[in-house]
Specification:
Strand content: 5-15%
Cofactor: Mg(2+)
CATH class: Alpha Beta
CATH architecture: 3-Layer(aba) Sandwich
CATH superfamily: P-loop containing nucleotide triphosphate hydrolases
Radius of gyration: 15 Å
Pathway: Metabolic intermediate biosynthesis; chorismate biosynthesis; chorismate from D-erythrose 4-phosphate and phosphoenolpyruvate: step 5/7
Function: Catalyzes the specific phosphorylation of the 3-hydroxyl group of shikimic acid using ATP as a cosubstrate.
Main location: cytoplasm
Keywords: Amino-acid biosynthesis, Aromatic amino acid biosynthesis, ATP-binding, Cytoplasm, Kinase, Magnesium, Metal-binding, Nucleotide-binding, Transferase
Largest sheet: 5 strands, parallel
Number of helices: 8
Shape: globular
Number of strands: 5
Length: 176
């Protein structure tokens, strides 16, 4: 059987993907991988610079490639960038991963809980301008896709990263 992640975490900015991925990887004794970091490493520059220098379309192409590579070469916890699930190729790759027994977790969060986590800083190019309004627009657009690609959903509001990781671990045990 080909290598595939133990679990894939998806969700909007501020849901806790990167933090939960680190906690869950320690809990399960596996490596963590973040596709945003893969994109930056492959491009040799931060995501915000990719958006400025090359545009969002170029970033999304790099992101599709990073997710596809990680889904076939990483056997630990995989955290996806917030918008990665919006590309059809990535949705198909996640569907294939799920059909092979993979677990895609939608880490859901409300704006009131995402705001303090994200800080709505300049490193998030899609949230420039009115970041709270932009986050809500993005979430309204993405929610149906997050729900469609995931086979497990957890609301992270008011939960510690440890509590979220424990819930995911329990779901992995249930599926085993």
């Amino acid at each position: 059987m080909a290598t595939q992640p133990l679990v894939v975490l998806a969700g909007p900015p501020g849901a806790g993907k990167s933090t939960v991925a680190k906690v869950l990887s320690r809990l399960k004794g596996v490596q963590v991988r973040d596709t945003d970091q893969d994109v930056e490493a492959n491009a040799g520059k931060p995501i915000s610079d990719i958006f400025i220098d090359d545009g969002e379309a170029a970033f999304r192409e790099l992101e599709v490639a990073a997710v596809a590579a990680a889904l076939t070469s990483h056997d630990g916890v995989l955290a996806l960038g917030g918008g990665a699930i919006m590309r059809e190729e990535t949705q198909e790759n996640l569907a294939r991963y799920r059909s092979q027994g993979g677990l895609v977790v939608f880490l859901d969060v409300t704006l009131s809980h995402a705001a303090p986590r994200v800080g709505f800083n300049q490193a998030r190019p899609l949230l420039l301008g009115n970041p709270r309004a932009q986050w809500k627009i993005l979430m309204d657009q993405r929610r149906p896709t997050y729900e469609a690609v995931a086979n497990f959903q957890i609301l992270t509001d008011g939960k510690s990263p440890q509590e979220v990781a424990q819930a995911i671990s329990a779901e992995l045990a249930r599926l085993a």
